[in-house]
Amino acid sequence: MQNRLENRCLHFVLVLFCLLGVVSCGGVASNPQTPVTPTQPTFAHVVLVVLENHSYSEVIGNSAMPYLNGLAQQNGLAAQYYANTHPSLPNYFMLTAGQTETTVDSHTGTMNDDNAVRELVKAGKSWKCYAESLPSPGYTGADAYPYARQHNPFSYFSDVQNDASQAANLVPFTQFGSDLGNGALPQYSFIVPNQLDNAHDGTLAQADSWLQQNIGPLIASSVFQASGLLIITFDEGDESDTSHGGGHVATVIVSTKVKKNYVSQAVFQHQSILRLMLAASGINTLPGEAATAPDMKEFFTGQ
Fold first, then answer.
1. Is-above-0.70 flag for pTM?
2. How far is CA 42 from CA 35, 134, 278, in A?
């Protein structure tokens, strides 16, 4: 009786192991390979370039933008990426603070909530906002066309307004080339072309040419090839495009660690870029909605 019970127990265990794939049963392969799950790599330099006011359908496949489309084809493309709202400024706040904060571009108040600058400083990481046509380093004032303040969210942060050393990280875009050439790029770079070069007042072809001329050297540099991450996105779609709030926009992820010719169908919004940029900088405390936003690890090869 005891032997029969033991045999039944052994038979049950073997059947269970077969179902779990622990042992081979009846010619079924044992221990099937588990797919490698990509992890979030960290980088010495993360760079975000924000363009303006065009929907995905206007950009991807557009012959007027051969350079950006080439980057999308060779690297990673987020095919279901959406801005959060209209107009511009709340989208820029989402990209840097994880909250929209305001519903108008004319907002002039100080933003006190947690943000990328606060977390970068706490972690001892360097940062700069390279704003094309910024009147002077540290400038936090009103528009000075073709510079538009609503595209420079850092100028609203109390962390910047109340600390001259942090305000000094707001610099004209002309400094980007010299920082790159001198090996002085910060950990985190936020790049905003002016109103003529960001496709707001200029054409998409002009914006594409600007990218090739100014971002091409970054991608080709040895420092980027070794440990760089570049993200190019649009703040919002066309005004008539309200999908997910701010419209369907093109977002391209570039790095030597990105899967090549990769197209993601996952839904992302600007809080996911904030999450990605801070996580890729080795920072775990994520402001606002970035803390719960879908991560973008799928773009990277398994580590």
1. yes
2. 21, 30, 9
